[in-house]
Amino acid sequence: MRRLIGATLLLIGIALVFYPHFKGRQELDKQAELVASFEQLGNTERLEELSGPVQTSVDSNRMEELQGARGVLQIAGIDLEIVIFEGSSLKTLSEGIGMIEPEKEIGVHNVGLAGHRALTYGKQFNRLGELVPGDVIEVKTYEKNLTFIVTDSFVVPKSKVDVLDDNDKPMLTLVTCTPAGKKNPPDRLIITAELQE
Questions:
Q1: Domains in the chain, please, with CATH?
Q2: What is the percent of the chain where pLDDT is above 70?
Q3: What is the pLDDT of residues 91-134, one digit of tens each?
Q4: HSE, side-chain direction, 13 A CA sphere, residue 158
């Protein structure tokens, strides 16, 4: 009986150790599928403009998951590729990253993008703090591919929202909670990036 209990506890311990890795891998796989579907839909829309209706292999469930998708954010320096959705609700941020003010246009305004940051390595904006001025951020929308260069990284209180104000240059402002893993963190890590012509 002791051996059975010991073996059971050992299996439970192993499961607890590997669960975060398994869950993180699942989320990365889902995000990769969403990115591929987003890019496929963009190609399909362009083909339809040129030649009429095109048959797509993106299933209806994936189409529903992409409702409100505005683009794909790619940051090679931190191995991040994730879908940008309209808004910043909890549901939106569980699917990808959120465009804080969806009425703004990427490449025209200062667009704020919010993402979660947790203790799981590689999850959404977890590695945002590794970015430094000069790093490259790319955004693919249905219409265009844009390149931004990181200009600054700083921390502000969560009440300081003027970092999202428009200025004379098209920008991205990436926003996430800091410190990572703290419940109701008081501050926000901000990364600003300017559009490259």
A1: 2-195 (2.40.260.10)
A2: 72
A3: 777 778 888 998 999 999 999 998 888 665 556 788 899 999 99
A4: 9
